[in-house]
Amino acid sequence: MRNLLLFTTLALFFSCNSSTAPDRNAKALGHWEALCEMVKAGAKPLGVSYPMEAWDIEAFYTEAQEIAKEYGVETVREKDFLTVGLFDPEIVKGKEVVLVYQGNTYRAYQDLKQEVALTSNHGGRFPEQIGRRLGRLLGYSPQAINTLLAENTEFRALTNFGVRGQGTTYYYQDLPRAVTFYEETLGLTRHLTAEHAVTFRVAEGAFLTLMDVAHSQHSAAEA
């Protein structure tokens, strides 16, 4: 559900429409309230409104502040929103956004902007890690960050090369004991259970299989 909300927010961030100003404002406020709720719940450290022209944001901001107040979160207008590899800079060029946050999140965003400015002043390229830090501030999953970096930079993830999943197998002499450790101590969730093997789902498309070495092609000395 959380990833769905994040990808929905990402889609809204990029959406464009030719509706009237009142319609745009109503849609933006609906999106904004969803952001406030996610920030309040801790699903997103930092939320970002639609990029808006000056005449649109003036009508939007007063109501946006009231909504944020209801959720107990903070807001600030931002005229130079960071993109750093995650977004096409043209999307926010000449436009303004409103940020919603709690606690020290806005300070972390400002620190990141300062780091970007220093890198730019010295003629350097923005490290991939800066884009990843921005993505984490926005609450995006690692998969979403990789997708955005692949679309907007030279970064390429495994999926860009046709890889859709990854599997790793560990061999144990005492399979039940190993399964107990991974399941009860590490908290992994079983995906498949066979007579001599158990597979855990580690992440999206990533699986770990524990196998009884006695029923494999390996020796006990190799386990």
Descriptive report:
There is one protein chain. The protein has helices at 2-14, 21-41, 54-71, 105-121, 128-137, 142-152, 175-185; strands at 46-48, 74-78, 97-101, 166-172, 189-193, 197-203, 206-212. Helices cover 45% and strands 17% of the residues. It folds into two domains: 2-160, no CATH class; 165-222, Roll (2,3-Dihydroxybiphenyl 1,2-Dioxygenase, domain 1), CATH 3.10.180.10. By secondary structure, it is an alpha+beta fold. It is elongated, with a radius of gyration of 23 Å. The strands form two sheets. A four-stranded mixed sheet has the order 4-7-6-5, covered by helices on one side.
Give a short overview.
The protein has 223 residues and is an alpha+beta fold. Helix content is 45%, strand content 17%.
Based on the model shown, name its key terms:
7 strands; disordered N terminus; 17% strand; 7 helices; 2,3-Dihydroxybiphenyl 1,2-Dioxygenase, domain 1; alpha+beta; elongated; 223 residues; 2 domains; three-stranded antiparallel β-sheet; four-stranded mixed β-sheet
